[in-house]
Amino acid sequence: MNENQYVKQVFSKNKEAYVTSSTHAYGSDLSTLINWLHPNKDMIALDIATGGGHAGKKLAPNVKEVFATDITKEMLENTSTHLQLYPNINYVIADAESLPFLDNAFDIVTCRIAAHHFPNPDRFIDEVERVLKPNGKFLLIDNVGPLEPSADTFINSLEKKRDYSHVRSLKITEWEELLSNNRLTILNQEKRKKTLPYNEWVYRTLEAKSEIEEVKNYILSAAGEIKDYFQIKVLDGEIIEFTIDEWMVLCRKSLNR
Is this entry keyworded Transmembrane helix (predicted)? Predict the structure, then answer.
């Protein structure tokens, strides 16, 4: 089974959890998204790998039209049911690395908490650059790997144990290189610690007790500096919460190559 098949399997099974997830539905980044993009009613927006549709929902009242894409049909169908009050959102089954849209089609492109599932992030950024209008804006929000190698290895290994559709959370330096290679100039950026409630996080993708126990033991057996970095909170032997690094970056597509 390839990465895209893993993604479809995981998100088909857990489609409702991604609509209701506190991490996805209520992040402060959703308000920041509008403040940074300054959308208007003449604009057409694309939300790549929309998942529960939270970014598309935020954009819809502020733009002419939103195209919400996802590789998972069941996810899109579920999200469209939840967002029936937003008639200007169109739902399209699409791979983030091979978008079915013409060149220079969108004023805004967003991708929120999804790119760590993409097998080839370079192709994803190529596609963003291709479908975005010159001077158009691209806003990416995703989990990122720490610069420190052991912390980077820990968090990506942990995510893979918890969700086999996880590919890799890139480091900010890696994203910066991909963006600069595709005439996407950074206008604004913010790195922050995002707190994950442990039970909600682990049960969103796992059901088997053995797998859940493996994740728990992996966290509890981590070195002290790893526990400190990710601010792992444990009470009476139970993991309560921990943090991961998240990066939000706003780019503009330049006119010239």
Answer: no
Average the pLDDT over 46-54 and give the result: 95
- Measured in whole angstroms, how far is the alpha carbon of residue 107 from the centre of its chain? 20
Residue 107 covered by a domain: yes
Is 181 part of a structural domain of the chain?
Answer: yes
> Quick check: pTM over 0.85?
yes
Kindly report, residue by residue over 126-158, the tens digit of the pLDDT: 999 999 999 999 999 999 999 999 999 999 999
On whether residue 59 sits in a domain, the answer given is yes
14-32: per-residue pLDDT in tens? 444 444 444 444 567 888 9
Task: Give how many domains the chain has, as a whole number.
Answer: 1
CA distances, 121 to each of 23, 25, 166, 255 (Å): 22, 24, 13, 22
Residue-wise burial string across 13-38, b where 16 or more C-beta atoms lie within 10 A, e elsewhere: ebbeebbebebbeebebbebbeebbe
**DSSP characters over the chain:** --HHHHHHHHHHHTHHHHHH-HHHHS-THHHHHHHHH---TT-EEEEET-TTTHHHHHHGGGSSEEEEEES-HHHHHHHHHHTTT-TTEEEEE-BTTB--S-TT-EEEEEEES-GGG-S-HHHHHHHHHHHEEEEEEEEEEEE-B-SSHHHHHHHHHHHHHH-TT-----BHHHHHHHHHTTTEEEEEEEEEEEEEEHHHHHHTT---HHHHHHHHHHHHTS-HHHHHHTT-EEETTEEEEEEEEEEEEEEEE-S--
Range of the domain at 14: 3-146+165-195+246-253
